[in-house]
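Internal tracking record. Fields below are filled automatically when a chain is submitted to the structure queue. Please do not edit lines marked as system-generated. If the sequence contains nonstandard residues, flag them in the REMARKS field before resubmitting.
Queue: standard
Priority: normal
Entity type: single polypeptide chain
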Amino acid sequence: MELNLGNWLLALSPVLTVLVLMVGVGWGGSRAGSAGFLVALALSLTAFGGDANLALVAIGKSMLLAIDVLYIVWMALFFYNVTNEAGAVSLIGRNLQRLTADRAAQSLLISWIFVSLIQGVGGFGVPIAVVAPLLVGLGYTATQSVIMASLGHGWAVTFGSLGTSFVALTAVTGLPGEALAHDAALILGFACLISGALVAYVSAGLMGFLRSIPMLLVVGAAMGLTQWWIATNGIWTLGATSGALAGALVGVIYVLSPLHQGGGQRENATKDDSGRSLVLALAAYVILLLLAFSVNLIEPLERLMDGVMIRLEFPAVATALGWAVPAETGRAISVFGHAGAILFYAGLVAFLLYRAAGSFESPRVWRDIWSKVRISALKSTISILALVAMASLMTHTGMTQIIARGISETFDADIYPLFAPFIGTLGAFMTGSNANSNVVFGALQQETATLLALSVPIILAGQTAGASLGSVLAPAKIIVGCSTVGLGGQEGPVIRRMLLLGLIPVLFVALFTFARLVNA
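SYSTEM-GENERATED OUTPUT FOLLOWS
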């Protein structure tokens, strides 16, 4: 399809529809997402040359993608309600306050370090769904909690989820991981500091951020350098996990050391908040991490858990304007080895543990938990179904590619590096996935860098770093977080503030990418 301003604006219009309705008008994700889907469907059948068969294939694939996401959403809500009904969330919050009275330091421990650790072994939306309620338990507003949990782990997405997004980048570009890991990990390590700084600012304002600078530098260096070392030594599947573990060790040592001057007086534990109670409260999260590590790293167990897969084959489709999508298998869903299944196992084991310990007050607690899950998940389910279908229609009719081409062909070699990360961010914002953005735009960025005689590894590093940071801004992910803190249907104001803050690290990554090319 010929690229011109009119076609570019038409291709962008479904995304603009969602943004205007959510950010400008204040609609919730279910209404705005449905409107965006209808716009994409109408355009795919008219201006972009699709037909009913293409639309059915695209929507069919999107249903598998949505199930993949919703499996996590429903089970994350189940896990959260189990821990909340047992009083674990509030107990962890009270004890964290005793570790340090500094609000900024508290938020960094949970919504920068702990959330990144979960991202290392988890996937779509799990870190936000697990951590946002913990922050509410600490006394933060629901909006603050979603924003901090989202922004805090943006740096860890590319090498998180066992390196899925980075592997996708190597697959689509045909370049070895060894050629791409250095620059990608270097830029993301820099982004780690910016992510932590935003968490401190949202948590405790400007003074809290200034007070946190020593902790940000010490812990950020530990996380960023560890991820870089692990990734550049060929173990990129554990890059974010290793970085977050290093951050957890250094972070706890730091807040307990004389270097930490902002903690004030620590309180003594009460009888009800004894060490034994805290261990019990933390048990659910320890179980979750152990199960995630085991299922993903122990190959015989992984093969066993992935023994039952849902797969559907989809035929090749093409638009009347020449855009073609080959025949392929849709998203494969592991029934028993999925991240959602792991959340369910962890929640079930925690439920039995808490019930044996007498932590539940209501005799109908099992029914109460699932009732709350159903109520919280309904609007999120509609939102995610609509948004994923919109993104799939845009991909299958070439709209996504037209948007990226319009950006890449507008700028010359001198300034293109400043925009490469924003292309990655746009792709992740539309699809909700760092991996999908790399698949859709990775080859385009590689080709553009070659044509403009720019360093391909650095441009691709900017692509995946921008996508990593942009993935946490995606409406689909924010909806997941909002659903666990009582903001279902009220995502518009959260996204509005998220965009204002979330584009800051992308801008820094763009400047850093530009500086790397200048000095390369």
